[in-house]
Amino acid sequence: MQKTDAETICKIQNVSKRFHKHYALSNFTLDIPRGAVYGLIGPNGAGKSTLLRILAALISPSSGEVWFDNDEVSQHSASIQRKIGYMPDFFGVYPDLTTVEYLEFYAGIHKIPRKKYKRTIEDLLELVDLTAKQNELVETLSRGMKQRLCLARALIHDPEILLLDEPASGLDPRGRVELRELVQSLHSIGKTVIISSHILPELAEMCTDIAILQEGRLVASGDVEKIVQRFSANRLFEIRVLDAKHVPAALELLKKQSTMSNITHEGDNLLLAGFDGNEQTLSEIMAALITHDIAITSFAPRASGGRLEEIFMNVTEGSTLS
Ligand SMILES: Nc1ncnc2c1ncn2[C@@H]1O[C@H](COP(=O)(O)OP(=O)(O)OP(=O)(O)O)[C@@H](O)[C@H]1O
Ligand SMILES: [Mg+2]
After folding, report:
1. By alpha-carbon position, which residue is closest to atom 28 of ligand 1?
2. What angle do the packed helices 279-291 and 247-255 form, to 10 degrees?
3. Cα torsion angle, 163, 169, 170, 173, sign
4. Which residues contact 160 (CB under 8 A, 6 or more apart)?
């Protein structure tokens, strides 16, 4: 079986994971470039957490292999766990420990010498902005603070690879910005970060690559910009008519266009339609609207803020799969 090369830190090869009769992952293959910030995107139940748990060597695949450098995960789980910092999507029950004691406990698990970990913990508490809470019981921290504490815990042994399962959930807007900055700073010092999320535009901003998962399968993967380009053929257009009374005629005309799909009426004067054609067909549609005396005030792709979200919706609906 192939091991990783200089550019690839992790190779996921034909991984399937079955729970009873259900496949959480089916024949999943993906290379993670060294130093990437790799986003895993997919709807609930797509298999993101299952994949991250397999990468963290917490559960074994039913079939297939995962390589980190020259180590296959199921054969070398101890050395993999030294390399990896894993932040789960749940926080469980905390024993009666303060924030600092909690991190000391995990420093102990990783066998970090006491002399060294005091300073490390101070730095980490500062990094995740919990210095003021260091002597509070973990149980009394807010959800967002617990989240940040888990991130500090994942970083305690200075791992090369970070696996973050939905780290942005439960964070307030400031927390999200700080998370993004933190991921960027980890990226800048050469760490590889694999991160799952539902918050797609945010993920796109911080990731170098993304993989889109659905029902345990890989739907698309690669460089963020390339994915956007690949799927932008099916763009979402906003068509605004001058007068709401023209909406029915506009709907009827757009529905006849083979390059338009999922046409919906939003608000008084606004129509939305998926468009999968070229500039020529676009100008023909506009000409047809005008010929039918349907006055249009705008006809444009929906602003790019939601672009990735749209792509994700298109891809997971299967409508643009090539
Ligand atoms: N321990 C388990 N036992 C049985 N089924 C499981 C187990 N873990 C996951 N599954 C199933 O595997 C599928 C994938 O679950 P997973 O948690 O990986 O999805 P996810 O993409 O992380 O979803 P979410 O966005 O909701 O976190 C689901 O159908 C889930 O019910
Ligand atoms: Mg999950």
Report:
1. 45
2. 140
3. positive
4. 9, 83, 84, 191, 192
Q: Please tell me the residue having the least CA distance from ligand 1 atom 2.
A: 19
Kindly give the number of the ligand 1 atom that is closest to the alpha carbon of 59.
1
With a pLDDT cut of 70, the percent of the chain lying above it is 89
- Tell the residue number behind the tokens 């390059």, with chain if given: 259
Q: pLDDT tens-digit profile of 276-305? A: 888 888 889 999 998 999 999 998 887 544
Q: Phi and psi (nearest 5°) for 117?
A: -75, -25
How much distance in Å is there from the Cα of 94 to the middle of ligand 2?
21
Of 23, 25, 40, 50, best ligand 1 pocket probe by most atoms within 8 Å of the beta carbon: 50
Substitution site in 17, 23, 41, 48 for ligand 1 pocket (most atoms within 8 Å of beta carbon): 48
Residue 191 has pLDDT above 80, yes or no: yes
Q: In what order do the strands lie in the sheet with 8-19?
A: 22-33, 8-19, 63-68, 71-72
Furthest CA-CA distance within the chain: 79
Domains of the chain plus CATH, in order, are 8-228 (3.40.50.300), 232-317 (3.30.70.100)
